[in-house]
Amino acid sequence: MNNKNLKAIIVDDCESNLSLISEMARHSGFIVECFSCSVNALEYIKKNTLDMLITDYQMPLMDGLSLVKEIRRFNVDLPVLMITGNGDDPVLLEKASRNGITAVLSKPIAYLEFIAVINEIKMRGGIKNELRGYISGRQ
């Protein structure tokens, strides 16, 4: 996947987490848009193209899992990294898997683990995106 102009949306109701995660995503080559409200993020995602969603699980109004469920109604392919304080909860992990969440990271977030997961998602997503571009270019 070409790392140029990759766009990520980060959703977390905690400003310090939002700042930390956005900085790590920028270091991974993403152009970043940040939202502290999942409802506002959903409206933005409906109207814009992006390459990845990074979301906290526990948030007011709409948790990260509910956000992903709504997104899956119109975008089944968007890679999603969910960040949670409950990363070892088997019920949450099962729900995450069932709803197409690409990866789950536990808090506190380790920089090297974050980078490794992001790079893995970019590599897996890149094959799909390059194939889609190739097919659409043959019209």
Give a verbal description of the structure.
There is one protein chain. Helix content is 48%, strand content 19%. By secondary structure, the chain is of the alpha/beta class. It has a single domain, classed as Response regulator (Rossmann fold), CATH 3.40.50.2300. Strand 3, helix 3 and strand 4 form a beta-alpha-beta unit.
Secondary structure elements and their pairing?
Blueprint: E1 6-11, H1 15-27, E2 30-35, H2 38-47, E3 52-56, H3 64-72, E4 80-84, H4 90-98, E5 103-106, H5 111-136
Parallel strand pairs: 1-2, 1-3, 3-4, 4-5
Helix pairs in contact: 2-3
Strand pairing plus helix content: what structural class? alpha/beta
Stretches with pLDDT under 50, minimum 5 residues: 126-139
What's the N-to-C terminus distance? 22 Å
Q: What's the number of extended β-strand segments? A: 5
Mean pLDDT: 86
Shape: globular
Fold-level CATH name: Rossmann fold
Architecture (CATH level 2) name: 3-Layer(aba) Sandwich
For this structure, the quaternary state is: single chain
* CATH superfamily placement: Response regulator
What would a concise description of this structure say?
With 139 residues, the chain is an alpha/beta fold.
